[in-house]
Amino acid sequence: MTTTEHLDQHVAVDPAILYFGTPVLLLSSANEDGTTNLMPMSSVFWLGRSAVLGIGARSQTALNLKRCPELVMNLASPANVAHVDRLALTTGRPDVSPWKARAGYVHAPDKFAVAGLTPLESATVRPHRVAECLVHLEAVVRETRPLGARAGEDDAAARQLAVEAEVTRVWVDPAIRLAGHADRIDPDLWRPLVLSFQRFYGLGPQVHPSRLAGIDEDRYREPRTAS
Ligand SMILES: Cc1cc2nc3c(=O)[nH]c(=O)nc-3n(C[C@H](O)[C@H](O)[C@H](O)COP(=O)(O)O)c2cc1C
Q: Where in this chain does the record put each Flavin reductase like domain (predicted)?
């Protein structure tokens, strides 16, 4: 027995989903008739000004982004959870797929009405923002790639897409701004809604001092060199 063996009580498992906790968004995209579709989603991360989103290829959102590569990421907090949950099991597609129909999904052409949310005009993109969310990130699609496709498979057959988007405008409610700074968010005040597996959670208080936080946030604006 090695000295570390007693630490390894892990068992190998095969979960159907690997949703270990990510923030929930309402993603706005433009329908063909110019109205805005809203999709609850949570497969997302940000690096610099870029966002990478995992989106079902057969969703109304995927069709909309192909036609009009503009979006808004409306970040949900726990106060928005009832609205988000009302949009679960809905799709903007009139031809609900057999898988979704069996799971209980229904067609909802007006997601703002279904959720009881209020649209706001955006500044740099066509889809509307969601007034009730504290953070709106307007963005344009830069690249879309198939996700999870196997070697030899046709890209067009991919069930999921990785959508890379560049943020073009950031709106925040003054309630979450860091006092004394024009362009900062106070992480003690911003509380994202988190999806863990299929359930909703909030975020607790900070759990440990952060060495990373010793880097002044504005340094992330500096261009990176190779060295
Ligand atoms: C909280 C939550 C998170 C979700 N996350 C994602 C996701 O990250 N990617 C995805 O493709 N679908 C996700 N879904 C499912 C979509 O909302 C669903 O496919 C929806 O029908 C898409 O809407 P649309 O067809 O109108 O675009 C999520 C649903 C909920 C309720």
A: 20-177
